[in-house]
């Protein structure tokens, strides 16, 4: 299982021209969870999975993205410690 990572989902363009920011988890299959945030392609650093400085409120929004990744990683590690197979439904519920 891979570490949770924030991505800009370019497969969908919103009415404002931005793309949704999602949490990507790979556990034999790719799972994506919308984070109710969006950005334009030029505002996104794909390597770091964070917003660039040109994006409005980038510091606050990047802090939220980091918190989401940390929380997701904790949930996954808890599943591993309990010897439970990964369940995306259970992950979303938690």
Structure, described:
With 94 residues, the chain is of the alpha+beta class. 32% of the residues lie in helices and 28% in strands. It is built from 2 helices and 5 strands, in the order E-E-E-E-E-H-H. It has helices at 58-81, 88-93; strands spanning 5-8, 19-26, 30-39, 44-45, 50-51. Strands 1-2-3 form a 3-stranded antiparallel sheet, covered by helices on one side. A hairpin with a 4-residue loop joins strand 4 (44-45) and strand 5 (50-51).
Write the layout of secondary structure elements.
Layout: E1 5-8, E2 19-26, E3 30-39, E4 44-45, E5 50-51, H1 58-81, H2 88-93
Antiparallel strand pairs: 1-2, 2-3, 4-5
- Through-space gap between termini: 18 Å
Q: Quick one: biggest sheet?
A: 3 strands, antiparallel
Please give the share of residues in helix.
Answer: 25-40%
- Global mean pLDDT: 93
Secondary structure tally, helices: 2
Globally, the shape reads elongated
Q: How would you classify the quaternary structure?
A: single chain
Which radius of gyration do the C-alpha atoms yield? 14 Å
- List the helices and strands in order: EEEEEHH
Describe the strand arrangement of the main beta sheet, using strand numbers. 1-2-3
Number of strands: 5
């Amino acid at each position: 299982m891979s570490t949770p990572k924030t991505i800009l989902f370019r497969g969908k363009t919103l009415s404002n021209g931005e793309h949704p920011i999602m949490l990507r988890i790979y556990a034999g299959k790719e799972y994506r969870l919308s984070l109710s945030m969006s950005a334009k392609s030029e505002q996104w650093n794909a390597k770091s999975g964070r917003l660039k400085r040109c994006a409005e409120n980038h510091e606050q929004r990047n802090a939220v993205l980091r918190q989401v990744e940390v929380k997701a990683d904790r949930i996954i590690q808890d599943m591993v410690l309990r010897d439970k197979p990964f369940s995306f439904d259970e992950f979303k519920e938690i």
